[in-house]
Amino acid sequence: MIQIKDLEFSYRKKNKLFTSLNVTFNKGQVYGILGHNGAGKTTLLKLIAGLLFPKSGDCNVYGFTPAKREPDFLEDIFYIPEEFEFPSLTIEKYVKIHARFYPKFDLSTMDHLLNEFELTGNSKINSLSFGQKKKLLIAFAISTNCRVLLMDEPTNGLDIPSKSTFRKIIASYFNEDRIFLISTHQVRDLDNILDTLIVIEKGKVIFNQTVGDIQENLCFKKVKNVDDTPNVLFADKEFGGYSVLTNKSGTDETKIDIELLYKAINSNSALVNNAFEQKNNSHE
């Protein structure tokens, strides 16, 4: 479990990014973290990884304080940054050097994932494209078998087939002992792999719901006329009509449209959150 309680962080004394941030990440969950640039997504991942230090409050990762950077903590967490640099090595040499820092590293998994991403061990990393380097980092991260995997914009630089492969890999190698946190602007890249969706804006968590609760409380529809549609929370005009988000009134489940939901939350987070509160109150 990752538990953040009353956390405060700022890059400058007069500009606090997080003030009394409280959020919990449970094992056995894939979390999608969405938000505009500057909202605090990357900062949150770096605080969890121990790359930044809170001014006050607590950040606890499976009993460890990340800022202490203890070896037992570092061997069980992996952070994929949005921007990165590799040494001038072959993939095989890179793996040989760095895998030793992760006791649960699985070389057979690494070989399989390199094959999935159409990479070979004798390739020189500096000759690879940005997208290929990103695939290498994802493959290595998964192969560490770390309990906590933090991914900042992991699908940036990937082509459409590789994004599909990424989703398949996340689904295949996730298990109930792991926590995956994925921060992204590419909301469609998270389709069908999330357990919980979190939206951060201006250093605050403005939305935090499981996929199950979203399906239970909200409905996603395509309609020609908004005026004829009851309980509309948000409408997005498109060719031939609208994509709409409504309160769920029946028992039919609809496919979650993460992009539409994200737009609705940015438009009026209080209105969207109220849909969950109303349903909860009706059950009491």
Number of helices: 8
Question: In the CATH classification, which architecture of the largest domain applies?
Answer: 3-Layer(aba) Sandwich
Biggest pleated-sheet summary: 6 strands, mixed
CATH class of the largest domain: Alpha Beta
Q: Strand content of the residues, in percent?
A: 25-35%
Q: What is the CATH topology descriptor of the largest domain? A: Rossmann fold
The total tally of domains equals 2
- CATH-assigned homologous superfamily of the largest domain: P-loop containing nucleotide triphosphate hydrolases
Shape: globular
- Order of strands in the sheet with the most strands? 5-6-7-3-8-9
Helix content: 25-40%
Query: Which class do the helix and strand fractions yield?
Result: alpha/beta
Report the strand count.
Answer: 12
* Pattern of helices and strands: EEEHEHEHHHEHEEEHEEEH
Low-confidence spans: none
What's the pLDDT, averaged over the residues? 91
Using only C-alpha atoms, the radius of gyration works out to: 20 Å
